[in-house]
Specification:
heterodimer; A: alpha+beta; Heat Shock Protein 90; 6-stranded mixed sheet; 6 strands; B: alpha+beta; Glutaredoxin; 4-stranded mixed sheet; 4 helices; 15% strand
Chain lengths: 182, 129
């Protein structure tokens, strides 16, 4: 995992497998305290306290197709390397929130990566899941809510729309960066 | 391409798309469509599954092939990522390994269009790690 966008896709895939109907993805940068946070919240089936404790163990997985599970251990590794940390809040039957924080003044802070690319694929491949994406830098924010798109009659899963949605996200994230960096 | 920044821009682009892409009536029954599942777990992502999935979505649209492209978890063939499972209507699913854009092109042209088997199939009884 070499960037934040890859982790975002990876953790969102966990939410999908947990049967989530709604997934929230927040990427938030705070220049004041030099932090970059990736937060994924879902209403999937959640986990027990014991399961949560085992999550960071690379040899723990719920799958039977293989004996390792590296998604969460990698995420923990990359944020701790960058002077941040990982927080997991989960309740069985209610859902899970994963929050990874990086320090932006640390040389090991991950680059953003192709967030628009991964996000547009997530939306396209899972039209039945409601996604709410927020990109925030200090006071500026961009929100994409698939429920809102649906209400406006925008069918993001239709043929030819992948590149359009990707471009829409890219433009808006760039605009936020532009304002935030003066 | 004009800038797409507001929801209005999005809507406008959608109208353009609708008139340009001849919207095919998606069959109600997914069994009659080609199903493409791209493995998008940690192993897949790290090996470039995103590029492969983008390729399938874009190219199947362009080549007017009725297909559903979705993402799936790890199928256990982490050594052969990116892996893609293709199900042609009425056929058993087949998993292809080490897929890149070039391979994906071959899979579309030869397997999806012609039903010809191409190199890179992972046999079903293969041991997972």
């Amino acid at each position: 995992m070499t960037d934040l966008a890859m982790h975002m896709m990876d953790i969102a895939q966990n939410s999908i497998r947990a049967g989530a109907r709604t997934i929230g993805i927040d990427i938030e940068e705070r220049s004041g305290d030099c932090t970059l946070t990736l937060r994924v919240t879902d209403d999937g089936k959640g986990m027990s306290r014991e399961t949560v404790e085992k999550l960071v163990d690379p040899f723990f997985t719920t799958r039977d197709t293989r004996r390792v599970g590296l998604g969460i251990p990698f995420l923990k590794m990359t944020c701790e390397q960058a002077g941040g940390g990982l927080q997991i809040i989960s309740k069985e039957g209610e859902g899970t929130t994963i929050e990874a924080t990086y320090r932006t003044d640390n040389i090991d802070c991950l680059p953003m990566g192709d967030v628009p690319g991964y996000l547009s694929l997530l939306l396209k491949a899972n039209p039945e899941i409601a996604f709410r994406f927020m990109y925030r830098v200090d006071e500026e924010e961009f929100v994409l809510d698939t429920e809102e798109l649906r209400e406006l009659g925008i069918e993001w899963e239709a043929a030819g729309m992948l590149a359009v949605i990707k471009e829409y996200i890219r433009e808006n994230m760039n605009a936020i960066d532009h304002i935030a960096n003066g | 391409m004009a800038v797409i920044k507001t929801l209005d821009d999005l809507k406008k682009r959608q109208e353009e798309m609708k008139s340009r892409v001849n919207l095919r009536d998606k069959a109600e029954n997914p069994e009659s469509l080609v199903q493409v599942k791209v493995a998008m777990a940690t192993c897949g992502i790290a090996s470039g599954a995103k590029e492969v999935m983008e390729f399938f979505v874009t190219e199947l649209d362009k080549r007017s092939i009725d297909a559903v492209v979705t993402q799936t978890g790890c199928m256990g063939y982490c050594f052969a990522e990116p892996t893609v499972e293709i199900t042609l209507p009425g056929k058993e699913p087949i998993v292809f390994g080490y897929v890149d854009a070039e391979k994906a092109d071959e899979i579309i042209e030869r397997y999806i269009k012609e039903g010809e088997l191409v190199d890179g199939i992972i046999p079903q009884n293969y041991n997972t790690i």
